Structure formats: C-alpha cells, structure tokens
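Check this.
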Amino acid sequence: MFSKIPKDRRVYLFDVVVELLSFNSLNSWKTQGPCQGHGYASWGTCDAVLPHIVWLKGLSDKYKIKPENLEKWAELVFGAGTYLWERQQPALAKEFFQYGLHGGFEIPDHIFAQAHRLMGHVYLDMAQPHAALDAYKKALTLRESINGVDSTAVADVCDSVACSYTEMGDTGNAFKYLQRATDIHNSNDPNKMTRTLAIEAMTYFVLGSRRNHLPPSSNAGNFKARRNKRSRIHPTPSIVAISCFCHESIGCKGRRKKARN
C-alpha cells in the first residue's frame, strides 16, 4: 500500500507517524542518573510503540526515506534499542543502535553521546568488552566536549570505560578511570557515586584482592561486621553490599560535615 503513495507524500506521512509516536515518548532513554533507561513504569508504553518503530524502520530501509525531523526519529530508534536492551535482548538492541549511529543522522551530539554509551552496555552484555570500550570512548569524547571534562556526565562514562577494562582484565586502566570518576564526584556530590564504588569493588574482585582491599572511603571494621552478618545468607561478598555501605558511609560523613558547618 505504501508503494502507491506518491513519493513527495511519503516523507510527510512518515513524519506524521513519527510525531504521533513521539507523543507516547520513549525519550527517557537518554536520562542521566542512577537509574539508566526507561524504567519499569514505562515498559508498557515501550512495548506498545515498538512494533510501529520496527515497521517504520522497515519502510525507511525499503523506500530510502529520510524524515524531516531526524532528531525525533533518532529518539524513537534509540529508545527502542534501549528498551530491547532493558528486556535482555542485546542482539536486537544492537541492530537499532547501529542503525541510528551509522545511518547518517544529523542530530545533536548529546544524543549521539548517550547512544554510544548504551551501545557499550549492549556490547558488554554480548561479552564484547573491546567493542564496548570503543563505544564508551566515543561517548567520553563527546561528553567532554559537551559537558566539560570535570562534569558528572563525564564521570558516568568514566565508570563505563572502567567497567569495560575490568571485563578485559585490565585492572590498571580500570582503576585509572575509576579514580578520575571518584575525583569528579568528590568535587561535586560524593553521594552520587554508588555505581563508581560498585565497579571499583568488582575490579578489586577481578584483581584477586577481595579480602584486603576496599574502597578508601569505607570503614573496615563496620564493613566486616555487616559482611559477616550477610555471609550467613550469601557466602560470597556482595558488590552491591560494598557499594551501598560506601554510599551510606559517605552520606553520613557529608551530613556530619554539614552539621559542623
């Protein structure tokens, strides 16, 4: 049926559908914060919109359609990729991210930056840490240019770079980027570096120094007591437990400092 539509009308109608789907909005995919992606609350919307995006993608490929509003179209494509990644379908997610990243889209760098970072997440889930590192470094370069080298947005990507190095077994470079992320968070808001601490703990595990190395902000005695309590249920030290404890420890220090001031 679409083939019967005059060529000069195809782009217009394509854009109308993109606009309609955008009102259901999958643009939360690029939200920066402790909870990456859409979140469970938006999964119903994502699930309903996804088939339409797949259909549009097929039309775009078949009829060589380049929509007028590339930014909104890119948002839908990357939003679909993020949703598929969240639903643990990295191979399908990869198709959407590659389509958006290599389709000649002329869109703002902040969208490309987040797309490259999420592409890195997808590669890690597919056990391709070298490809993930390449994607993360592209995101890092863009974030440094957009947000500044000492921004928390850059710290978030440094975490991801460190994670890919850890997956590769290169703990030296992992700690280098973790330290950079830590320094940035400490100069902004140390309460927001739980993910940094979690990746740091994971890197120490890979290094093989679980018992003797903890993030410097932790209190060894208190952590040991908590670990012993948890070990009755979980004999293996929990990365989440370490990061949560460190987060609480930093938070308490911050509150005490504010009280003194």
